[in-house]
Predict the 3D structure of the following.
Amino acid sequence: MGVLYKRGHASLDLLDDLFAGSVLVSWRKLAPVIHGYRQRAHTPDYAQWFEHLAQALDARLTGLGEVHPTLNRTAPTASPPGAEPGSD
């Protein structure tokens, strides 16, 4: 999905509607693994379009004032009403 966004084949608006929550939660959970792999394998561009898409979606949702999962692992995450914090 990230490369489709990067090449202009999928708009950020469409990707937001379809996958924003999944992309943001996945990136937040996988970022430490991916950053570690980049360092160990000397591949600084591994999963770069995934990261770019997550950052773009985060910026878009922040700009719209929408509650969404944060990319910062130390910050509290958004939970749906009635959900227990940290249960995502």
Summary: Residues 18 and 85 are 24 Å apart (CA to CA). The two ends are 22 Å apart (CA to CA). Confidence is low (pLDDT under 50) at residues 73-88. Residues 2-64 form one domain.
